[in-house]
Amino acid sequence: MPSVDDLFKGRHFDREIIVLCVRWYLRYKLSFRDLVEMMAERGLSLAHTTIMRWVQRYVPEFEKRWNRFARQVGGSWRVDETYVKIKGRWVYLYRAVDKAGKTVDFLLRAKRDVAAAKAFFRRAFARHGRPPGKITLDGYQASHRAARELLTQHRAGGVRTRIRSSKYLNNLIEQDHRSIKLRLGPMLGFKRFRHAAITIAGVELMHRIRKGQFALSKFRAVGTTAPEIWSAVLAA
Fold this sequence. Notes:
Keywords: DNA recombination, DNA-binding, Plasmid, Transposition. By secondary structure, this protein is α/β, with parallel strands linked by helices. The chain is 50% helix and 15% strand.
């Protein structure tokens, strides 16, 4: 992992400006051009494509650095899919939260099928080290099949996971989708799948930060501001 100085080496603008623009774009309902105007009021001349490139370049690095401080999630997951438009076509965002509403994982896929669901569960199991005690799904059978087939492989190691179907219990994940969709709406659709995946990862990161899913007690001295916490996390 490069040092924070190497990460921003050779950039025309200070790293504080880069982090601020990326953080605000991911967190608030702002377009690239909104940010250009806001920076112009502060005496900074930026092109909207510059901020777009910053988002694509730095979101994966920010995610890696914040994930070092991630708290564990609970053992009861609610899993569901929502829709995102890319170049005029709908694709599928698989997401899961635990019973306390903490984000478990997410994955953008072009299709909604068994292979896509397996890819999501495989990623989520690997990220958290093992399957959860319970997985709650809706009635879509492809997701049930994917979960069962992957869990069969893990059961040889003694893991027992209960799969259940409940529209009522999955209201929690459906409500959580709204926070993501409300931020994606002003972005007016994506042109490339890879760019969409990176941007969504950044939006999900900001959502996790807002939900307190990171152990940042050592950075939260009295009076510590968000920029100071970000600087400390990136430099740690």
